[in-house]
Amino acid sequence: MGLSLINSTTISLIFSPKPKLIIPKFHQNVNFYGDRFCKNLSFTTTTPRRSLLSIKSVLSEFPNEKSYSKIGAQSTGPIPSKQLLQVVELAAKTGAEVVMEAVNKPRNISYKGLTDLVTDTDKMSETAILGVVNENFKDHLILGEEGGLIGDSSSDYLWCIDPLDGTTNFAHGYPSFAVSVAVLFRGKPAAAAVVEFVGGPMCWNTRTFTASAGGGAFCNGQKIHVSQTDQVERSLLVTGFGYEHDDAWATNINLFKEFTDISRGVRRLGAAAVDMCHVALGIVESYWEYRLKPWDMAAGVLIVEEAGGIVSRMDGGEFCVFDRSVIVSNGILHSKLLERISPPTEKLKDNGIDFSWWFKPENYHTDL
Question: Which SUPFAM superfamilies match (predicted)?
Fold first, then answer.
């Protein structure tokens, strides 16, 4: 008798699920900047064309950001980073004690220019800061806003001190001023501290921002990070205007108007160190300004970078603390902001506005 297929045992057929897309491993030499890819990716396995197209679609969600150089020091030389940071923080807090003692008292104001004022508190704060630095590092070079350049110009270490950033705000009791201290190693920021005054008359308080190159950024000892906002339309921005009302000043007035139209707003608080710390804290997305000095920027730029942000010149070029313009951002928006900021900055350069280094101490060694 022949076999009957009809009466044979029924076998259930189990179909494999639809294959999932598996993104292949990346080579170890792929570079990252913050949490985003910043260079082309290479694959270690053979992948079907359809899968590659899917991967390309996924990766296209990441902004096509230019890679920006780190501005922090790669080394701190013979002095450990921790020791530098301890002295930087002590110096800033010592200056802040002087400011706090004077904050509710009448001001004795003098003028360096028509509207550029200075108070006795600026000078007293700088003296207190210098005392801390000299007690710990007698052979270091120091650049202070009020006292100028002192010390050994052949030193690898340069201290940039703003004893009262936002003096006009301080003189009026307006809550946006700070003490800013940073130390450079061979021209690049190695450690930084900014003591920001918050509150207002009769309720003053402070918060302290610190950073060391490669060591992260902190506010009152807690680690901080820039915002993750990825749209200019959803951003709160900050800028500043110097005392010299030249073409660069007028250009930034126009940028202020332009970004006010397309963002959630643009603020002008009047203290560069404070503005940059607010970017690092993640409460604003970007800050830019022309005509700053090393003591205005040295601490703030390192704090932003260590909080995950990006620092460059306003023309998009590589930044150093001796430059005449700066833009800091959360990184995600940097190229988008420069699309509007860089062209008018290039135009200023074409029209003869000087954007060379503002100042570098003679004989001071740098890696720049």
Answer: Carbohydrate phosphatase (SSF56655)
